[in-house]
Specification:
With about 500 residues, the chain is of the alpha+beta class. About 35% of the residues lie in helices and about 20% in strands. The strands form 5 sheets. The chain has a 7-stranded mixed beta sheet with strand order 4-7-2-1-9-12-11.
Length: about 500
């Protein structure tokens, strides 16, 4: 039985007659189904589209107001004939059935549905105005979506749907949770931790996510995007604390972590995954064939951002970074970086791609800091990139990103490195960067020169220092009472 709490029709009609399309979403107590009502705004749609396969879970598209005629052939498109402003239609979606089929593929057992929004939110390919979605849910049920909360709406219930390309994935989660906002400079991070068997330690997981969000905010003093959905899905299995995570860009920034809640809090705080995934948001979406750039930058900052908030020591971070380079070197020599990046998933060249990109990030960072006397850095260029270009609703090529970064202070460093290494089979030569840093490798051991220039350059990278060598004022970003441990990857 679907629990229906209908807004007064005259209020809804007046809201949409001179505005965007408005979706009202209701659920039953068991979260088995969602009932969705769409009332057309001033530019009524002629067709609505669901995600691929969404038609399998759809029931009863019907008119509730006006004279619109609805045609559904059983697929993933609804045809709307003669829809006018203020006309409304309603449909029901077996959302838990859809979620269980998806969860079976990802090994997650839960009664809380997690599905792409396109399973239940049937919408035009492009809207003339950003539609509104209003959730009217049972007491104690929360929702997590990647869209922007409506400024004057109900907290956690009313959203503006951000327009992104139709094929970009996203997730909607419903459950007995309260989506909380994390206090990170420059960003509103909306965190939802779902239930699991056993129940997760929500306080411990919150501290882990917040600590790593602050690490990424420490790159240039604020989080790279103003709003993001953070979703933690306990799966209760896997040989590490965070077996899997992903970043989605559909409808806005969404970072999703699949965790093994059997691990203690220390295992999460030592894990690199959250810093890596959140660091992806430092760049716009980069097409997958250029994964060396997006994955490389995230691999670099998963190490150099964490010492800035006390999650690692600088020595641990350098050791992890150089160990990653070693893994990347072990896969080099067969394909060019361009080929390895393009074929990464098919050929399993993950180490080659991730750590080549990280090495190029280090080379660029050291070069910028050294040649400018500390006035420029990779941090600062990325901060300007955020100012001009984030959030972004399109896919970028690596060349587009690097050219823009050169314009924003790179001075040719980024494109020069790209042209030198993209079609080379060798791993990028980072020897000069290490020499400038005063770091020497002896097998697995690292030694650090006491020479002032190298020491200041190392400190500048690991502490996020200003150009004069003094640490930047990031006291509000550090994690209080955090003891750095030596474990982790």
């Amino acid at each position: 039985m679907i629990l229906i709490r209908i807004l007064p029709v005259f209020l809804l009609a007046s809201a949409v007659a001179a505005g965007p399309d408005v979706y009202t979403v209701r659920a039953d107590e068991g979260l088995d189904a969602l009932e969705v009502e769409l009332c057309a705004g001033d530019t009524p749609p002629a067709r609505l589209h669901g995600a691929r396969g969404a038609g399998r879970y759809l029931e009863g598209p019907r008119r509730t107001r006006g004279s619109v005629r609805i045609r559904h052939d059983g697929g993933d498109t609804l045809h709307l004939d003669g829809m006018r402003p203020g006309d409304c239609l309603r449909w029901s979606v077996r959302v838990k059935e859809a979620a269980r089929e998806r969860s079976a593929r990802h090994g997650r057992e839960t009664d809380e549905p997690v599905v792409p929004s396109g399973v239940w939110l049937w919408r035009p390919e492009r809207s003339a105005r950003q539609p509104l979605v209003r959730f009217d849910l049972p007491e104690g049920v929360g929702v997590s979506v990647p869209w922007t909360p409506l400024a004057d709406g109900r907290r956690g219930r009313d959203f503006v749907v951000n327009e992104t390309p139709p094929g970009w994935p996203d997730l909607t989660a419903l459950g007995r949770f309260d989506a909380q906002e994390l206090p990170v400079p420059g960003g509103r991070l909306r965190l939802a931790i779902l239930s699991g068997r056993p129940a997760p330690d929500r306080a411990a997981l919150t501290e882990w996510i917040e600590a790593n969000a602050r690490a990424v905010a420490a790159v240039y003093g604020r989080f790279p995007v103003p709003d993001a959905q953070l979703l933690v899905l306990p799966i209760g299995r896997g040989g590490e604390a965070v077996p899997w995570a992903q970043v989605n860009r559909g409808g806005g920034a969404g970072v999703h972590f699949f965790v093994n809640q059997h691990y203690a809090q220390a295992a999460f705080l030592d894990d690199w995954t959250a810093a890596h995934e959140l660091s992806h948001l430092l760049l716009p979406f980069v097409r997958r064939s250029d994964a060396w750039l997006s994955e490389g930058l995230a691999s670099y900052y998963q190490n150099v951002s964490r010492p800035r908030v006390g999650l690692l020591t600088a020595e641990q971070a350098w050791s992890k970074l150089l160990a990653g380079f070693g893994r990347g070197e072990g896969q080099a020599g067969g394909q060019t970086l361009r080929e390895a990046s393009r074929n990464m998933r098919r050929n399993g060249a993950f180490m080659r791609v991730y750590w080549s990109g990280a090495a190029l990030a280090l080379i660029a960072d050291v070069s910028l800091r050294k040649e400018s006397g500390g006035r420029e850095s990779l941090d600062k260029v990325l901060g300007r990139l955020a100012d001009c270009c984030l959030p972004s609703d399109r896919a970028w090529t690596a060349v587009e990103v690097l050219q823009r970064m050169d314009e924003l202070g790179g001075g040719g460093v980024f494109m020069n490195l790209y042209e030198r290494w993209i079609d080379d089979r060798a791993f990028p030569d980072y020897g000069q960067a290490l020499a400038r840093l005063g770091i020497r490798r002896n097998g697995d051991d690292l030694t650090y020169s006491a020479e002032r220039a190298g020491r200041r350059l190392r400190d500048a990278i690991m502490a996020g220092a200003d150009g004069d060598g003094r640490p930047a004022d990031k006291a509000d970003l550090r994690i209080p009472n955090r003891e750095t441990t030596a474990s982790g990857r």
